[in-house]
Design brief:
With 329 residues, this protein is mostly beta strands. It is 6% helix and 55% strand. The strands form seven sheets. Strands 22, 23, 24, 25 and 26 form a five-stranded antiparallel sheet that branches. A four-stranded antiparallel sheet has the order 1-29-28-27, with no helix packed on it. It is globular and about 50 Å long.
Amino acid sequence: MKPWLCTLVALQLLVASAAAAAPALKKVAELDLPGPLGERFDYMRIDHAGKRLFVTHLGASQVYVVSLTDLKVAATIKGTPAVEDVAFVPELNRLYTTNWGENKIGVIDLATMQVVDRIPTAEKPDGIEYASKFGKLYVSNERARVESVVDVRTNQQIKAVPFRSQTGMPRFDPVANKVYVNLQDLNTIAVIDPQTDTVEAEIPVPGCRGNHGMALDPAGRRAFVACEGNNVLVVMDLETRQPVAQFDIGRGNDFIEFDVGLRRVYVPAGGVMTVIQQDGPDRYRALEPFPIAIGVHTLAVDQQTHRVYVAQQQENNRPDSKLVVYEAM
């Protein structure tokens, strides 16, 4: 090989190596959150049109509404005992919260920032998902092994779908018009038809133990399943219902997100953010692990700005209550 060609190859390898080691995220801002320090946060959701972030502070039994325009706390909503997850219903300007502390679904009017109703549900309501095309909420009552279906027009539970397993995160697929629910004791995904609220199938997730967290790429027909029992992420083809990739992730994984524009899966757990890059429907690679605070197990991804938000309850072994903002690199 000619000397100049050797030099070119060496430079290309050096650039490729540097790119592979480049951090996937960069910290750009932080915001102190109300409430006691060191208490567990849970899930977060974004209202992209209204540029608002909803943060559930389980240990403080309250929800924060954060303006993403100026990164300030616009409201602190109390009366949500041990709140775990939150769903935003834009046409009603309401939030629905899963309140583990009272086994109820809270209804928050965002015009007044007040709890206006409480809907009885089963034991330990956890993940909640809004199927907008059907005007229904799907609530995973983890310990009761039941998926509650709520009509948002009446704020009434219209069906309880029983399972043989504790239920994990539900997700709505607007392309196939299906609701997927993790059955974490069976290592399968239940497929619910929201027209009839009946279970059509259960999809095994090979290589997974304890599938709790899940994110979807509806257009690409992929599901990303986080398995807290053996700390792996399994990528599933929703058409063939077969796995196409698997990655190691941090211990204590929980809520995960998919950035549609950047084609990235984010998994916060064990003091690191695992970032999986989708190069094609069946081609994935892990980017350089990014360090985050111990205890962070949830996040929200702004699909417009590609910013990543995490709520941390400790930093450097000291109690904390903070929202941290990262820029995608």
